[in-house]
Structures are given as C-alpha cells and as structure tokens.
C-alpha cells in the first residue's frame, strides 16, 4: 500500500493522506538554521546545534511522536468550527490533504468545508529564519468569516535542560511583544546574547505568549481555548511556558485568496549592545528589525524561495543520471543526494529517532558522510575535515563525537573506538579525489583543539595510520578497543549491570580482542595513504604503507579467514567471533564487504567465496542481514549486539549502512547483476509499494530494516540519519554506474546489470561538465572510452587540457 507518490518533475514526494504509518519528515535549512517538519507540521527548529540552541520545544517520545510543531489553526467564525489544515494537532477531517516534501521545503495543504489552506515552510539561504507562506482560499459561494491562529512553543534553548529542569524553567520564561512581533528572550538578561522572534505580515487581532492562556487549563494543542473562543488572550509570558501565537481575522469573498507570512527567526546581538536603551532590560532590536521587515514582504519571501529552488537544482545538477531503472534515477538524481545533505549537516544528532540532545557529530559517521556529500559543496567538506581532524588526539585516536556548536570533543564518550582514525584517511581521500585540492594536506590542524598543537593535516593522517600499528593484538590483527564500526560488538565491556553504557564502560584490559574488520579497513587505508604519499612525491613512504598493508592482508588471510568467509573478530578470551565454530553469530556481513573492498581475495577467489557465503546465509528479499544465526540470548563477552531481540538492529537486522559494502564488493568482483539486485532490495523508492510493511519514508533510507528473525521482517526504523545515505550514493554512482573520481581524474568503470543496454549521465567534476553515454555491446565489464571523439587509453579521463568546460565521453561495454 502507498501513502503518496513521487513527483520527480518537481523533485517532491507527495503524501496524499495524513495518517502515514509513522511521521514522514523533511528537513528545513541546510546551513545554520535547521528544522524538522513532519507531514502533519510536527517538529522543531534549532540554530546549528539541536541540543544547545533549540528554538522550539519538542516532547520526547510523544504520541504521535511528531506532536508539537509549526501549527496553524483555522476557525469559521460563523459556526465556531475550527481545524488544522495540516491535520494535526486537531485531527479534524479534511476533504483534501497533501503534503509535498521538496528540496528544503514542505508544503502542507488541507481543505475543509470549502476553505482551502496551504502553507509552504522553508528556510531562506543565508538567513537564520524560517518562513511559513500561508495561503487561504474561500471556495464557498458565500463570504467566509475566518480566524487564523499561528502557534509555536518556545524551547528554553538548552533542550536537555528544557526537558528536565522544571523547578527552574517554570520561572525563567520571558518575552517581549513589539509591533506585533513576539520576541522570546529567556535567559537573555544573563548570559545569552541571542533571542528568537516570531512575526506575522497581517494586521493582528491579538496574540498569546503564555501557553496556558492560549490552550486553557487541562487542554492540549488539539483544543486551544483561544481558538475555540475565536479570541486570543494577549497574554505576556512571565515564567511557565512561553509560546508564540498570532491571531488574524479575515473576511474572504467567494473565490478570494489571501496570503499571510509567518516568520520565525533566531538573532544574535553583540555582547555590548544587547539592550536598547543600554541601561534597560529591553532587547536591542536595531539589527533584527531590517531582517524582519524584509521577510514580511511577500515578494522577498518568494524571491528567497526561488533562490532556494535554484540552489538545489544546482547542487543536484552536479550528478544526474538516466538509467533503465526509475528507482535508481530518482534516488541518485534527487533523494539520495538530498539525504546526504541531511546526514552531512546533522550527522546522527536530530531526527525523530535521534533526539538532538544526545550525540553531536560522530567522528566515524561524519567522515563517512563525506562520501556522499563532497561533490556537492567541497568547501564545506574541507571545513568539516579540518574540524574533525582537530578533535583527533595526539595518539592518533579520536574523540568519538563532538558538539557542533563548540566543535569540541565530547568527554562523556571519549575515544578508543579503534576504527575511528581510519575514517579520517578515507574522508580526506574522498576529498582529494573529488577536488584535486592537495593544499588541504598542508593545513595546520590542532590536536584535541589545543592551541599550539597545530600540525599539517597530513601528519594527522600519518598518526591515524600509526594508531593501529601501535595497537596490534595477539594475532597481529588490530585491537578493537571499545568497538569498531559495529558499536554493539563490545568485546571489552563485560556488562552485567542495567543502565551501564556498553560503549563507554570498558572493564577489560583491551589487549586481546581483535577486529578483522579493522584489518580490512587498515588495508584500504594503507592503499589510500600510499597513493597520497606517492602523489606528494614521497615514494619511500608510499612503499612503506603498501608494505604495512600487505602485511596486514597476510594476517587477515591467515587469522581472519574461516574457510568460506572472513571471521569477524577475536574476543577477550581469544575465541573467534563470526566463525563456523561459533554456536550463533557464525557469519557477519562487515568483514565480507570491507575486506573485499580493500581488495583482499579479489585475485584468488577468496572474495568470491565470501560473497557467495553472504548470498547463501545473509541475503533476504528485504536486504542483507548483519549476521546469522541471530543471538538468541545475551552474551556477556559480546555486549550490546546480543542485547537486541533477534532480527533487530545489530543483532541480525538488515543494517542498511553495510549493505552497500557488499554491493561495492560485488561490483569490484565484476558482478553487476548482484550489485544492482542488492541495491534495489533496500532502495526506499523500490519499496514504496510495500509502504505498510516498510513503514518509514519511501524517499530516504532508514538505518535498519528488521531482519528475517524478527516478527516484523521488512519493517524499517530510524530513517534519515544513517551512513546508509552516503554509502549507497557512493555505491551506485561510483561502483555500479562507475563514475568515479580518482586522484588523477575521472575514472569510468561501470559494472551494470547485464540486461541494461546502457545509461547516460552528466557529471560536473573539477570545473568540467562531462556528458557521459554508456552503451552495452557485450555482457562483460570491459570498457572502451572516447573523449570528445578521440579514443582514450585506459579509463581515467584526465580532464581537458585546452580549458574547455564541457566534454563528451562515450563508453562501450563489452
Ligand atoms: C545502536 C547503534 C549505535 C550506538 C551508538 C546503539 O544502541 O544500536 O546503532 O551506533 O547505540 O552509541
Ligand atoms: C550507528 C552509528 O552511528 C554508527 O557509528 C555505527 O557504525 C553503526 N550504528 C553500527 O553500530
């Protein structure tokens, strides 16, 4: 069953009924000001950091979980009937409903009894504000007397404190109302220099800023007393719960349409100019007023929207493909790239599954997110790389997470996730391949954000690499530390106490448990380091990396191969994890995918055997599960992985993040059919017809789909913020379609399904627009290229030497 449809022309997903199985959301903003918005207008906004600068309130684990949002109420002043055109929060019946989620905006429309209303929400580029463009039309034959109420609830900034520290918070709320603009200034009197504001373009009939006045006693957002009565209370919040609500009355003639703008913004004042007059406690509004005035003009709001639309057309235009598969096209051309922007901005911080008060940006996660983002805005990728590297520790290890506002490493979580440093190498490699900007290697970067500790980024990479060599275990494999990519394989945390963190409670010495996965990761990192060193002219150093890589590969072959597949790890007792000798968890996906990506066994059939084992033991129609057989009980020596009921999350769920590792591995092994088949199994667009099984949004990837051991096999959870976005984008564009930035130019090496007759693509790369046409002439993967009519030797397009900015590449596959 479907809950909507793709409108590819407009790059929108159109939801046609409000009661989707779960809230289906979108992100507003892609720079500094962000919001989450559900298909029924639920969600919240924040400036840069979902925890530390939350503008509007969200109640955790609410039912439904998108309750609380950017609400508009309509009231028929003749009958007293009132409703939400976005369906929530009143839940009143609508005769017509659609939600169009687009690139950086959402338009939610609803009609009731001849009154059609529609609100487009978006964040203009370069501004710290969101615009709600509200339109209402009277389709009745008689005039309509209407009241319109806006409603948001302010968060008292630190979202964690806001949801826990009530003894204080109920007494600190403060607002100002001036010229109909509501200013939220809680804590402004003391250490904050920022405030929020909420303005309306129409003449007001009233306002409310105290929640209890607006809602009334013992009422929720579904039945505000002010709306029921048709009259705001003009309340001024002192303590309790500041909100923002405007009330506008309208008389609409038959057929008449009116437009109203509501604008919510964030503003900072200089520390020494907070008040006006300076010795007062009144917010200085001198610098914010021009912004407010500007965006209350409809033409300016429209203009900002068109700019946003053009901006996205530009970003997506960097890579556009036309293949025989609509789901591939739609994800590559629109939604997967779009999701990569969200994961780049949010890491794993703010969605309806990530609370925004927990994790900030993850070191491992953000480095991987670059794979799907770097081609869109390389400058931002560069900045991110340098920020991440600055949270690296002098040992070469790294803080596992950092807070985006402060950019400081998170002490609560600390480091010792022994895969972390290598993702920095892969992130930088991706940046270099895309941009050719080798200057980044010379950029001075601190360790642990300590001034004076600056060293060139290249030195950081060297330390990343050495980190593993300094931490080898009994078999010569990398020690795992707290965890590697799989946060739930906790081999040094024997936890028998409820509530302990599996990740940060480390009670084993950590000198025995080893990770074959990190072994594979290291082999790949060694190749990248060698290429980087070689390019920088350091041939000896390059040879050194290759030698270390080769040694590790040998170790993996000796101690990490189980006969039919790669072993996952050795535990604290030196016993194998992910081996035929294990009672449960005999085979894991991660080392199969990653060791092959690292090139291990591609020459001698080991890779093929590993991938055949994946097919035999792990592949399901809904995707590839993480391991088998699922753990049926809790194992003290394995940790969180065995805490999950079978089929969920890391315990044999389909962890969509690592499916593309197998997809890439299959492509590397020359098997385009298998690669694209696996790709399609988890492609959300391809899963749209089974919306009631999949349940999450059909336009973005979810972290997990329940595995075959779960009663809900096929059900997705944790949509949006997952490494799945970047890895699938990377897998389909660079390995299946084979349009692959490399150190020396654009490499073209498609490994597409045999039945495909070819495909076309446009790819902007290092200032040149490449028009790529691929034609299959035979069933293999051998490619022949002509560039602007001339045959090319090899398959790496070095880029035009004559300064031209367009180039045509024709490829035949035999
Ligand atoms: C989840 C992992 C996640 C980790 C983060 C675990 O509960 O299962 O997917 O990476 O928490 O700390
Ligand atoms: C989600 C985390 O964000 C990511 O860092 C980790 O690799 C996976 N879970 C697997 O545990």
Give a verbal description of the structure:
- The chain has 19 helices and 42 strands.
- It has a 10-stranded antiparallel β-sheet with strand order 1-2-9-10-11-12-19-16-15-14, with helices on one face.
- The radius of gyration is 28 Å and the shape is globular.
- It starts with a strand and ends with a strand.
- 1-deoxynojirimycin binds next to helix 8.
What is the gist of this entry?
With 814 residues, this protein is of the alpha+beta class. A 10-stranded antiparallel β-sheet has the order 1-2-9-10-11-12-19-16-15-14, with helices on one face. Strands 6, 7, 8, 13, 17 and 18 form a 6-stranded antiparallel β-sheet that branches. It is globular and about 80 Å long.
